[in-house]
Design brief:
By secondary structure, the chain is α+β, with helices and mostly antiparallel strands. Helix content is 55%, strand content 14%.
């Protein structure tokens, strides 16, 4: 039984780690939205949470950080706050759950109750972190779709489209929530009837 518990905890931690890495990628790369000018020398615009980049087909590229955060669109400000908060909460989840893993001998066997509570706390933190990232990216996507199909904007004006960072954020949120749930449910087992008890 201990081997099954160890495998379940490691699976939850691995999923959470994968999601955490995806969230870090989404946070830092300037590729949330992309747009093309369609001119003779084609320019691709890439918008991130911290800077915007202009990339030409001839190989020239320039990235510039936003000057005044107060004038940023609400979805960018929200993305910054929520994804940074998600990364912080995810780090706390690793700090809580990693020493409490069954395969790690940081805690004595007599402290089994503390080990279980720390794993459950870590799973909850991972789930909250994933939900924050998922909500942030989904709101960003919703706002982009509304503007993309806005008929009041002339058709010849380039539209923003989803970039790779948004997909990384979606995957990151999903993996974090999944890893958190696996870590939480790994601390419970079902007996012969309907009774659910915590691992002994």
């Amino acid at each position: 039984m201990e081997a099954v518990l160890c495998f379940s905890e490691l699976a939850g931690l691995f999923l959470s780690l994968s999601g955490y890495i995806c969230c870090l990628v989404a946070l830092f790369i300037p590729y949330w939205l992309t747009s093309s000018s369609g001119l003779l020398i084609n320019e691709n615009y890439r918008l991130g949470l911290w800077q915007i980049c202009v990339i030409q087909d001839v190989g020239f590229s320039v990235c510039q950080e936003y000057q005044t955060p107060q004038q940023l669109p609400i979805q960018v400000q929200m993305g910054r706050v929520l994804v940074c908060l998600s990364v912080l909460i995810g780090a706390l989840g690793f700090m809580a759950s990693t020493p409490a893993l069954t395969c790690v001998k940081c805690l004595d066997n007599s402290e089994g109750h503390v080990r279980k509570m720390l794993n459950i706390l870590g799973g909850l933190l991972f789930s909250v972190a994933g939900a924050l990232t998922f909500y942030s990216v989904s709101y960003f996507a919703y706002d982009t779709l509304i503007k993309f199909w806005d008929r009041s904007i002339p058709k010849d004006i380039p539209r923003w489209e989803f970039g790779d960072a948004m997909y990384a954020g979606w995957f990151g949120g999903f993996f974090l929530v999944s890893g958190g749930c696996v870590l939480i449910f790994s601390q419970f087992r079902v007996t012969g009837g309907d009774e659910i008890i915590i691992w002994p």
